[in-house]
Amino acid sequence: MPVKRTLIIYHSGAGSTKTIAEIYHEKLKDLSPDLIPITLPFPYEILGHYDLIVLGFPTYHGEAPHSMVQFVENMPSFEPQKTAFLFTTYGLYPANALYHLGKKLKEKNCVLSFTAGYRAPATDAALLLPPMKPLFRYGKNTVKKLNNHLEHIRKCIVSSQIVEINPRFRLHALLNYPNQYFGKRVTHQLTVDDTLCVQCNRCVHQCILTCWHRGSSSLVPVYDNTHCEYCFKCVHHCPANAIMLSSKTKDAPN
Ligand SMILES: Cc1cc2nc3c(=O)[nH]c(=O)nc-3n(C[C@H](O)[C@H](O)[C@H](O)COP(=O)(O)O)c2cc1C
């Protein structure tokens, strides 16, 4: 049976989703999967080289991030069908994030064969409540879960036995609605400390929603939160810890 060509593709702010994607990549390396982060816009034609796509994303406010939704919505409808695996990382509760993105993938003619959620350090909470950072960590059963999931994925890659699943709608996720409603209404203002900034422009290169631009009057990058989904990738990638955060509640960005 021919081995299916596999692409692992992910979006990650603080690195937890990237870590899980890298573990998938490492543990399946004998089957030569490719691993890439999502970019916007994305060269969708490369997806034509793969039979099977593993898609990873963090849960934000009980949903997939806008960037991820945008990535899937702009995807062409596949002909022939493609097999997709979906995983998310979350701090406390992934609500219906997998259900909603799974449905969108099916609209693109993907056969969804697997979904998984991994509890990971809650990046937003760790940034907003630094003293509580030690409480936010990977779930105790993550290694066991990963091993089971990798075994399943391996079977699908080496055989043609793909079983289609329908991700379950979690009714109790409706209780999470206040968190989603208010969470989306908190906006953050990121500021750069000019005295610390080393003008490497890593924030400009890392942001997939182009919230950072090279400064015109100074070499310090300029931030615009109009499209920001607060993944905090810029904060985590800044080598000089020059990006700082403040929050306020106002109208949601969308
Ligand atoms: C803006 C934002 C919103 C979040 N909302 C939720 C949430 O609703 N539920 C949850 O369990 N975790 C939530 N988290 C935590 C992330 O899902 C978790 O930290 C995830 O592993 C981050 O992945 P990353 O490190 O790849 O960015 C949120 C994090 C951020 C930054």
TrEMBL record:
Domain annotation 4Fe-4S ferredoxin-type: ranges: 188-217, 219-248
Keywords associated with the record: Iron, Iron-sulfur, Metal-binding
Pfam families reported in the protein's UniProt record: Flavodoxin_5
SUPFAM superfamilies: 4Fe-4S ferredoxins (SSF54862), Flavoproteins (SSF52218)
Gene Ontology MF annotations: FMN binding; iron-sulfur cluster binding; metal ion binding; oxidoreductase activity, acting on NAD(P)H
Domain Flavodoxin-like: 6-143
Entries under InterPro entries matching the protein: 4Fe4S_Fe-S-bd, 4Fe4S_Fe_S_CS, EFR1-like, Flavodoxin/NO_synth, Flavodoxin_dom, Flavoprotein-like_sf
Iron-sulfur recorded as keyword: yes
NCBIfam families given in the database record: ferrodoxin_EFR1 (NF038196)
Protein name: Flavodoxin domain-containing protein
Native source species: Anoxynatronum buryatiense
